[in-house]
Amino acid sequence: MKTTDIYTSWGATFGKALATDLKQCFSEITAHYTNPNRHYHTFDHVADLTAQIGQSSLSLDNKAALLNVALFHDVIYQAGRKDNERKSAAFATKWLLKLNMEAKKTEQISKMINATGTHDSSDRLTQVFLDMDLSILGATAEDYKVYIAQIRKEHRKVPGCLYTMGRKRFLKAMLSRAVIFYTPKYHEAFEKRARKNLQNELNHLKNSYENYFSKQFTYYGI
Predict the structure, then answer these.
(1) Residue 6 CA: distances (Å) to CA of 45, 101, 141, 144
(2) Does 25 have pLDDT greater than 70?
(3) What is the pLDDT of residues 166-202, one digit of tens each?
(4) Could you tell me the residue range of the domain that residue 53 belongs to?
(5) For residue 17, what is the domain's CATH number?
(6) How many Å from the N-terminal Cα to the C-terminal Cα in the chain?
(7) Over 60: is that where the pLDDT of 221 sits?
(8) Whether 78 contacts 119, CB under 8 Å
(9) 18 or 207: which carries more pLDDT confidence?
(10) pTM beyond cutoff 0.90
(11) Looking at the 3D structure of the chain, how many domains does it have?
């Protein structure tokens, strides 16, 4: 899906927005998503989500809400920061109100964006988006390897040892969940493969970590 297609789908969710405001907003969003430091959190990710939303059986109103969540949820992204979702939600709120979206809908979208920080929610529509957002975890083994390589590139300034520890915490947290995917459709399609991918990555990191320290201990005569 081309960037212009994303713009067209997203722009159609507004009925009272000025064309100049829509273009200015999308221009700012584009600047964020095309930052050269990004490798996974790019327009490709947004395009994938946009396609999933379009193929869903959701109502037009719910699709419109999720299209906005998809576009704004990673607009602010700095690897390692814990406030990306909060800042993305604030960015979205500012622009959605300027684009004359109803306050109630704006608040709904903001809450869904914030929920992507923990990937946890009791709201049904939010769960649908969270499943879409995490669907990469249930990708084929080859696509999953591409994904984890992209994530590592985004954290390339983080020393390997620290990255390994942080990544292992994420993997263990996901594997400890009763379910990774909330909705029946995504649970059936991706749950087993996601757990296999996560466990394989965790095993790989454990082996790499142990091998690294084994070499250090040998070097220092321990």
Answers:
(1) 11, 18, 28, 24
(2) yes
(3) 999 999 999 999 999 999 999 999 999 999 999 999 9
(4) 1-133
(5) 1.10.3210
(6) 55
(7) no
(8) no
(9) 18
(10) yes
(11) 2
